[in-house]
Structure formats: structure tokens, C-alpha cells
Amino acid sequence: MSLRIHPLSYNLGAEITGVDFSRPQSEQNLALIHGAFLDHSVLLFRGQPVTREQHIAVSGWFGELESNDAAPVMRIENYPQILMVSHKPNPNWKPSDDYVGKVWHTDHSHTLHPAKATTLRGVEVPDIGGDTMFANMCLAYETLSDGMKKLLEGQHAIHPVGVHTRRIDKSSPQRMAESIRRNPPIAQPLVRVHPDTGRKALYLSVKLKQIVGMTPEESAPLLDYLCRHSEKPQFVYRHHWRKDDLLVWDNRCLMHMAVNDFDKTQTRYLERTVIKGTPSGYATT
Ligand code: SIN
Q: What pTM does this model have?
């Protein structure tokens, strides 16, 4: 079985075939996979009914794993490296109910060690919908005018931790206050240099409200423009989930979002690992 790389769209994503997850990989295969990760930013391994141990081992090909101490509620017993990303059918569900991950964002940008990569394994997926979309932020940056690139040079934006995220423990008012205190807003560069490729990428999230040194009102039109620019279809790959898909993506040059459009009487259950990144940004309080 020899490893092959099949691009999934013109600008982003590749499916890797010919990898047997039940065996250790050769140095040559690992180098090819890592090269494809840097070239395509999203890798898909299809039809891989892996165990949790294998999921953890495959994640380790990309670096050191997070143990998710900040999100204990979603951890899986005995597998601290794996988090549940889950919608289970719920008779009380209303269209307005929140669903984690449904806006464009990049993992852990509200921390001083934003994630290098994330992996997501499709354990149970709805028949239709519940896709995950990815935006290529290097292309988004490279297609800006020189004037806009100059305006963004050296600028930072504030990445808040939303109270609805898994990092905030809402089990009591005291715990909530403590976890908000432990997660102050972080200022991140608006343009980030990818540590492995040297390419520049916009570093955004729809949750951003303010550029450092500007008021929220002044910041909003620029942040809104940059997000809308980055979401253009030509920068985006949309992944339609199948059971036993394993996706790996590079948070250093992508935004992603889950599309909250599936039949809520069906289960969407994915398991996720996060690979640690390098330090970035500074705390604002
Ligand atoms: C996430 O935003 O980290 C999860 C993405 C998804 O549920 O597709």
C-alpha cells in the first residue's frame, strides 16, 4: 500500500490514502504526511475506524498533544487528550440553541499558546449537513491590497474567551468567575507568520471586537471587512462528514466553523485532539 495525496479543492485540503493506522509509519511516510500538511493545511484520512489509542497515536505525528485541562467537562474518561464535540438528539432543542464552534474561529487563539493543529474524528454523523468549513488565511492575506497590508502591519486584535465556550466552567457562579479570571482576553497579531512555511496569514475570528489602540466602534468595520473577505468561497474548503473520517488541520493558517444545519433528531458526535502550538500574543489584563 503506497501513500498518495489527492487534493480536495483548488486552494485547500488533501485526502491521504494508503496509510495503515494499525502499524507504525516509516520515516518516509511521516515526512510525506507532514509535507502534505504544510502544503494543503487540511488532511483527510477516510474510512479509518480507529480506536482512541490509534487516534491519539496519529495525532502525535503532528506534535505534542494538549491534555485539555481547561475543558474538563468535555474530556473522555481515561483519555484526557480527547474531547467530545457532540450534539445528541434532545426533545427540548430549539433553533436558537447554541452549538459550539458554529462561527468562524481558530482554536485556542484566546490563549498564549494557540493550537498548532486540531484533529477531528467522525464517530457518528448526520445523514446530511453538519459540515465543517475551512478558510485559507494565507490566501486571504495575500489577496489584500498593499495599502491594507500596510495598515495591518504590527496591529493586534483582542481575542476574548466567550462565556459559552468549554473553557468557562458554568457549574456555579464562583467557578464561572474563577475561570473567567484564569482566561483573560489575549491580544494576537492580526497578521501571523507561519512558523514552518514563513507565509503570512490573517489571524482572525468572528468573535473579535477590538483592535488594540482603537475603540470597538472604529475596529468593527475593519474586522468585519477582513472576516467577510476571508470567507470568500474561493478561499474555502467545505468538508461533508462521513463516519470514520479523520481530519487534521493547521490552525496557524486557517479559520474553521461547523455548519449548524443538520437534523437535530440525529446525532453528530466527533472526537477531537489538539496539538500544542508555539507561544503567541500577550494578556491584556
Ligand atoms: C470546532 O469548532 O472545533 C469543531 C468543529 C466541528 O464541530 O465541526
A: 0.91
